[in-house]
Amino acid sequence: MTAKHDLKPIAGGGLLDRRLFLKKGLTFSAVVLSADVLAQGEHYRPDSSKIAGKPFSNYGLPSQYERETIRWTMGNSMADGNGVSWTPLQDLEGTITPNGLHFERHHNGVPEIDPQQHQLLIHGLVDKSLLFEVEDLLRYPMTSLLCFIECGGNSNAAWRSKPIQTKLGYFHGMASCSEWTGVPLRLLLDEAKLKGRAKWLVAEGADASLMNVSLPLEKALDDCIIALYQNGERIRPENGYPLRLIAPGWEGVVNVKWLRRLHITNRPVMARNETSKYTELMPSGKARQFTFVMEAKSLITHPSFGHKLDKQGFYQISGLAWSGHGKIKKVEVSADGGKTWATADLQEPVLSKCFTRFRIPWQWTGEKVILKSRAIDETGYVQPEREELVKQRGTHGYFHYNAIVSWEIDRDGSITHVYA
Ligand SMILES: Nc1nc2c(c(=O)[nH]1)N[C@H]1C(S)=C(S)[C@@H](COP(=O)(O)O)O[C@H]1N2
Ligand SMILES: [Mo]
User: Fold this and answer.
1) Closest Cα to atom 19, ligand 1: which residue?
2) Are the beta carbons of 366 and 407 closer than 8 angstroms?
3) How far apart are the first and last CA of the chain?
4) Whose CA is nearest to atom 12 of ligand 1?
5) How far does residue 149's CA lie from ligand 1's centre (Å)?
6) How far is the CA of 253 from the centre of ligand 2 (A)?
7) What is the Å distance from ligand 1's center to 327 Cα?
8) Dist. CA 87 → ligand 2 center (Å)
9) Is 173 in the pocket of ligand 1 (CB under 6 A)?
10) Are 248 and 146 in contact (CB under 8 A)?
11) Does ligand 1 come within 6 angstroms of the Cβ of 205?
12) For position 3, what pLDDT does the model report?
């Protein structure tokens, strides 16, 4: 593609003004059609228009030509069904993750739960213990919210001393974004009447791992929901059917799936996933614990590793940014390895604790360049460079990696992941 217009870069490496597309008279295709080709095109009858199409289907699937847009699955030997499947962020656009591509993280497989047999118990430091059938919850007032879920272990390969060469989704794809609908947790806790000493709740799943974690009641009463629906349909088994906890902006592990019990307590239970896991040894020799919020991050999804630029000229750089602290305020992009930055366009609506799509036009002149993106959230927090993050957190880290990601575009248009 070439754009013959006012293509004066606004930053190094050929970055163009984000408002370029608002201008009239842009041409993105250099080809001028001959009269012959034009006539042929006008009268051509594609094969698909010569016979009746296929019948209706009860549940739609993607086109057979999109079969490579799949989750990449990775089990481990710690337990049956323990592992991850990654969202192919490099192949998707917009902000919503299709349900079949939402990342998965299970500690002991996906349980098969009959909603008629499933119950949610709320007990402990409450005046009234409550037991809900799924049917009961379906009759409660509901609310919908769009938010990302990101595993605290997402991007952990980037702590390694050498940059991993793999597709974006295979090391940053433990993050997905959906519209979740369910009952505000506050409603249920108000009904149970919390005792004065109540400070925490311990949420437990009904899967074989009986995974449990502690959550401060402050968060539970703020914006958590007991979700029953995901992007309009009932939650998929992989993501917690028939119900799960959603704690917007907080690390994936507290979003307990197949939720069966909320035990109200006055202190955390010190479960495996908040002591031995999801804690981090800092350079001081002390460990951080209960680092719930996922801090601002951004990724250029296109172009990224595995894509190839086949010619010089015009491209649109596209990516995702999000912050567990609120809205994304700004995303800046660099095409010269971080020397100069230009502000990207943010796709509306920009929502709190939700994926935000950013885009910026770019003219590639065939030179070797390094692309980077950096997110700034509404608290003023700026996504750090890798060097800065390592300085703060040392190299024993595994969780909460959120440094700037750099892609090097070589002269032949191939793309490598670099630390720059
Ligand atoms: N019951 C239960 N809940 C769970 C888990 C689990 O294994 N069992 N995994 C947790 C972790 S570590 C993450 S990152 C998220 C992943 O949610 P997803 O599989 O819907 O993407 O679920 C959390 N909730
Ligand atoms: Mo996780």
Assistant:
1) 104
2) no
3) 28
4) 253
5) 10
6) 4
7) 24
8) 14
9) no
10) no
11) yes
12) 47
48 alpha carbon – ligand 1 mean position (Å): 43
Q: Is 394 exposed, middle or buried (0-12, 13-18, 19+ CB in 10 A)?
A: middle
- Spatial distance between the Cα atoms of 108 and 127, rounded to a whole number of angstroms: 34
Short-list 215, 218, 220, CA closest to 269: 215
> Quick check: CB of 261 below 6 Å from ligand 1?
no
- Tell me 246's DSSP state: E
Q: Is the peptide bond before 303 cis (omega within 30 degrees of 0)?
A: yes
Q: Does the beta carbon of 209 sit less than 6 angstroms from any atom of ligand 1?
A: yes
149 lines ligand 1 (CB under 6 A): yes
Distance 147 CA to ligand 2 centre (A): 16
244 Cβ below 6 A of ligand 1: no
Report helix, strand or coil for 337.
Answer: coil
Which two tokens mark 199? 């400070």
Tell me which amino acid residue 208 is. A
CATH class of 297-418: mainly beta
Q: What is the pLDDT of residue 2?
A: 45
Q: Is 151 in the pocket of ligand 1 (CB under 6 A)?
A: yes
* pLDDT tens, the chain, 420 aa long: 444 555 789 999 999 999 887 777 777 766 788 888 888 888 899 999 999 999 999 999 999 999 999 999 999 888 999 999 999 999 999 999 999 999 999 999 999 999 999 999 999 999 999 999 999 999 999 999 999 999 999 999 999 999 999 999 999 999 999 999 999 999 999 999 999 999 999 999 999 999 999 999 999 999 999 999 999 999 999 999 999 999 999 999 999 999 999 999 999 999 888 988 888 888 888 888 999 999 999 999 999 999 999 999 999 999 999 999 999 999 999 999 999 999 999 999 999 999 999 999 999 999 999 999 999 999 999 999 999 999 999 988 889 999 999 999 999 999 999 999
Domains of the chain, by residue range, sit at 104-288, 297-418
Q: Can you tell me which residue has the tokens 């951004």?
A: 298
Q: What is the pairing mode between strands 345-346 and 297-302?
A: unpaired
CATH code, 104-288: 3.90.420.10
Whether 298 lines ligand 1, by a CB cut-off of 6 Å, is: no
